[in-house]
Structure to design on (164 residues):
């Protein structure tokens, strides 16, 4: 049963219920995080099995991010503090975390810092998820919302990091 295939066309509610079971089996309370249907929506096309989906959803529900050692060393370093500070200031001003709002924020940060999208999004992805492979950064931010996003305090982000 643990390797039950995840049918891409399965209703989100059904997949969410199964994902909740797998999360609970891993010791994660599916009620302690964002809306499970929204979480499933970010992972459904990226997961071949419910086990993969539950593993991919883990970061949405943890109070403390668990970092992959290589990802942490590469992306959560002192050199990226300015990126986190500028991004945090822009996100703080963001009315909501809709894709349109987030695209505008990233556009302003890219222009101000003269960086390409990946140089901003990848450190943030690692800060929020602990790794380099995850749903799209806008999807993550939308589902986490402002409060959970700002609760993240990645190593190397400094005092002005995401915890403004």
């Amino acid at each position: 049963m643990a390797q039950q295939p995840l049918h891409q066309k399965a209703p989100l509610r059904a997949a969410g219920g199964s994902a909740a079971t797998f999360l609970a089996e891993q010791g994660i309370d599916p009620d302690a995080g964002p809306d499970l249907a929204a979480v499933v929506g970010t992972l459904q096309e990226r997961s071949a099995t419910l086990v993969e989906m539950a593993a991919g959803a883990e970061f949405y529900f943890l109070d403390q991010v668990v970092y992959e050692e290589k990802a942490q060393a590469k992306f959560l370093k002192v050199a990226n503090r300015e990126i986190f500070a500028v991004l945090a200031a822009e996100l703080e001003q963001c009315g909501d975390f809709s894709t349109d709002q987030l695209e505008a924020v990233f556009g302003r940060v890219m222009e101000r810092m003269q960086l390409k999208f990946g140089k901003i999004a990848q450190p943030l992805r690692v800060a929020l998820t602990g790794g380099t492979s995850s749903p799209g950064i806008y999807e993550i931010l939308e589902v986490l919302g402002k409060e959970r996003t700002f609760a993240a305090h990645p190593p190397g982000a400094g005092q002005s990091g995401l915890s403004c």
Remarks:
- Confidence is low (pLDDT under 50) at residues 1-15.
- The CA atoms of residues 152 and 162 lie 6 Å apart.
